[in-house]
Specification:
single chain; globular
Length: about 550
Amino acid sequence: MSARRSALLIAVIAAGAFLARLPQLDARPLHGDEAVHAWKLDELLEQGRFDYDPTEYHGPTLHYATAPVAYLCGATRFADQSKVLLRVVPVVFGTLTILTLILLIDAVGSAAAVWGALLLAASPSVAFFSRYYIPEALLGCFTLATIACFWRASRSMHLGWSVAAGIFAGLMHATKETCVLAFGAMLLAGVITLRVRPRNTGRLSSAARFFAFSIAAGVTSLAVFSDGFRDWDDVRESVTTFRHYVDRAGDPLHQHPAHYYMSLLVGWRAANGPLWTELPAMVFATVGVVLCWRGRRSFERIRQTDAHPSSAAPSAVEPNDNVTAATAFCRFLAIYVALLTVGYALIPYKTPWSLLSFWQGWLLLAGIGIAWLHDRIPPGTPRLTVLTLALITVGVLLSQQYRSTATWFTQRARYAFDTCPYVYAHPGPAVEDLARYVTEVSDASAPAPVVHVFSPNAWPIPWYLRRLQVGYWEKPPVAKNAGETWTASAPIVIVTSDCVPLPGSEFAPGYVVSHYGLRRDVHCQVYVERGYWERFARRQSFADGTDPK
């Protein structure tokens, strides 16, 4: 298959992945982290700048990428936001990640690039977290783009690719602090595999390329963090933040064993639930890793393609131990992915969406493994068997991808908490019922009542109540005198069960109490003053067509 046809096929696969990830983006309740990022977006839209917090949250690229979409949708305030508006941004960057493989066709081979694109599009974990309003999809896109531009720079006589690699590296830094793990893995993998140098590069030395890369990376990071070179405090804090993240690595709240990520990918099953596994892709990836170390002959057999569409002419490569530039690149990729995986495994603080950073590399290695097996096995039934197994792998991944989204609508609560490995500290559907109830109670009265929320971690409630007048505290105030109890101080009060101390039964006399789930083991008590509740009930009765009398 020629490189141009492969590029077209990858583009078709990316378009299919985009269309498959778009539907029903608003079906799943907003995660607490998504709601926090949405609140930071509102800060950018209303104040015209992003205030970076070195102790919480992450870099500003997610919000800057969302701002144009928000303006196009007319969402200039927190109240105007929607789940679709937010989540379409990571969907776009997840699609761009697949398109990035076009730049690597002449590095891994046409067949390997196409299979890698298929696996990226089919992977349930990649698709699931590409529909989350969190920075991981952007970080994964920028990381793969940095590597791809490095490869193109090594094959080109132009500094443009070095500059592009620097821009994407700067965007990595401006996206999330865990970029340092990827930078470290890239550096070590590059040192190990730095054996081959392009011969026909004219006057462009390695020093010139590195200088261009460094300047582009630095300027990009400075421009994003400083809000267009206007706020230098955020630039300083983008460096000092790593001290806080070293401390956070030991946070007991999200501590998991070293094998946590692999347990999600290799095989995960809850009681009475379906099996979730991407093990077949891992097996093909292992074959790809082995292939990278078998020397030039084994690898060159799967690279019989035309020159890359972006290349004016193929660059001659100086042989060194019979290793070509493409073979060296794939060895770099294997080492880089392995180092990054180990790095994430060794950090006690783990969240499932972090696996995107290294799992995308494994899927590309799996594409290499499939292409090599198909080429090395004799024609006929054996080769057809390999092709069938590869297609079955894609089908298995697609079926799990469908299950992770479509089943939410028929068994929402069960799949929210029990049987999907990618659901982590996620609110259940009841949070939307709570928001609907409080909003309807508020709409039934004029002026709208004030709402008080007491919770050590109320997210995503603030996003759902963004159109109301709400105050937030971590816990109810303590009684001033012995024997006294504090009572509700607003017409509507929400208290979560993780408050300390919990209010007693005398907390809100004269209030109607309702109960809603928030997250696993955390539920909410909603207190509505009886007069407001009666007006709400009267409106509901009229809406139902019944006589309130």
